[in-house]
Amino acid sequence: MSQQRRMGGQPMFILNEDSQRTEGEDAQTSNIAAGKAISEAVRTTLGPRGMDKMLVSDSGDVVITNDGATILDEMEIEHPAAQMIVEVAETQEEEVGDGTTTASVLAGELLKQAEDLLDDDVHPTTIVEGYHEAAQLAQESIDADVDEETLLSVAESSMTGKGTGDVNAAGLAETVVEAVQHVDTDAGVVRDNITVRTQTGASSSATELVEGVIVDEEPGHENMPRSVDDAAIAVLDNDIDLKESSIDAEYNITEVDQLDQAIEAEETELRGYVDKIEDVGAKVVFATGDIADRAKAFLAKRGILAFESVGDDDAKSIASATGGSRAGSVDDLEADDLGEADEVRVEKFDDDDVAFIEGGAAADAVTVFARGGTDHVTDELERALTDALDVVTAALDQGGVVPGAGAAEIAIAAHIRDEAASIEGRKQLAVEAFADAVDVLPRTLAANTGMDPIDALVDLRSEFDSEGRAGIISEGQTGIIGDPVEYGVLDPAAVKEEAVESATEASTMIVRIDDVISAE
């Protein structure tokens, strides 16, 4: 039915007759229900004892993970309000690289609390104002600190409960922290200088940090060296091949001498390119274009290691990491364009050749070379390592770490409740509801650990009141109440700050919507 308004006694049609409109409480109920549903979808994955989800695409591709961002990315979500919760996770992932499940669960619980307030006739604007005031109080209560020991703890905490194959999170944490510290400069951590590269065929315990760049490339000729020390590296954005004529021409060769002369001319041209490469001092060549077979043979005879058809991204990484410049052609190549590395070597993994560019200027970049027995293992290991690298970077760059295991949330909720008493009117109800929503995180951790969530919450509050810090520590088949700092369970402060901010923004935006108009 079309939407209409009467004007001068005549109906005036505003919306297309195929449009659908949901107003008032129906719109709010629908949107809140959709947001809560998304939150519930990832809630059981929270914490070190969180469960995995199996996601199967239309084509039959299978992803098994408990990473909140991956789960929400793989789900085909159509409801616009639910999509807003997905955007919370995306924002969390983009800003700090971890805490996507935390942000999504908090957003869902804020919506649930708002639904109860709406049922009690609290106006949406009052709820929004109360939530924003409570969020500011939450940010005030986040007290952060950082040192190397805490960086190891935060990396380990980030990976605990995620797929790390046959190696424990503590071992990988050392690799992660070493990688981040390697690219930590006076201007901050250069996160783009850290790459995670996966390779099946070995156990996860074979994962290592390579001070340099790794690319999937094989030598252009079997007689080329597979290892070059003190390597001067040329990166070419062109072919190493005969120049094509700008006009179409035919040559009639009637004598063998003419053919020999033509072949000799071609070889002279190709040798000239190889001479130029050798003269400028290059020992290794990465070309984005093709290399003629005869040119490969000439390069091999000179002991020059060359790679062809190198991807543009890899060429960019190699040039950047080695301090070189990309030359447009061999004719343009100069000695100043060359990059440097202590070693370039090629190793074989199963049937694949992999090139390692290590040391020298290349040491400005590092690669976490992640190993695993299957593609599923390496995929999940890559996600875990990427999250850990992001959270350690956030810890260094964005204000340190806070106690994990739900301890930060217990402190946040307590601070908000203390301050709520001084807030007048119905807005106080919204502030207190925000504190109740924050409690969902330690309650969920307790439930996923095998504890009774209500009893655990009571014990957490009691321990916090007496000791000033309390969290859910996973131990054996269940959990205990303890000091997460003593157990090395820490989270980046930026993760908590971003989760509070993004969850508050999404939930308040949804609460304010009282009219949904959709075109069919």
From TrEMBL:
<comment type="similarity">
    <text>Belongs to the TCP-1 chaperonin family.</text>
</comment>
<feature type="region of interest" description="Disordered">
    <location>
        <begin position="1"/>
        <end position="30"/>
    </location>
</feature>
<keyword id="KW-0547">Nucleotide-binding</keyword>
<dbReference type="InterPro" id="IPR017998">
    <property type="entry name" value="Chaperone_TCP-1"/>
</dbReference>
<dbReference type="GO" id="GO:0016887">
    <property type="term" value="F:ATP hydrolysis activity"/>
</dbReference>
<dbReference type="InterPro" id="IPR027410">
    <property type="entry name" value="TCP-1-like_intermed_sf"/>
</dbReference>
<dbReference type="GO" id="GO:0140662">
    <property type="term" value="F:ATP-dependent protein folding chaperone"/>
</dbReference>
<protein>
    <submittedName>
        <fullName>Thermosome</fullName>
    </submittedName>
</protein>
<keyword id="KW-0143">Chaperone</keyword>
<dbReference type="InterPro" id="IPR002194">
    <property type="entry name" value="Chaperonin_TCP-1_CS"/>
</dbReference>
<dbReference type="InterPro" id="IPR053374">
    <property type="entry name" value="TCP-1_chaperonin"/>
</dbReference>
<dbReference type="Pfam" id="PF00118">
    <property type="entry name" value="Cpn60_TCP1"/>
</dbReference>
<dbReference type="InterPro" id="IPR027409">
    <property type="entry name" value="GroEL-like_apical_dom_sf"/>
</dbReference>
<dbReference type="InterPro" id="IPR027413">
    <property type="entry name" value="GROEL-like_equatorial_sf"/>
</dbReference>
<dbReference type="GO" id="GO:0051082">
    <property type="term" value="F:unfolded protein binding"/>
</dbReference>
<keyword id="KW-0067">ATP-binding</keyword>
<dbReference type="InterPro" id="IPR002423">
    <property type="entry name" value="Cpn60/GroEL/TCP-1"/>
</dbReference>
<dbReference type="GO" id="GO:0005524">
    <property type="term" value="F:ATP binding"/>
</dbReference>
<dbReference type="InterPro" id="IPR054827">
    <property type="entry name" value="thermosome_alpha"/>
</dbReference>
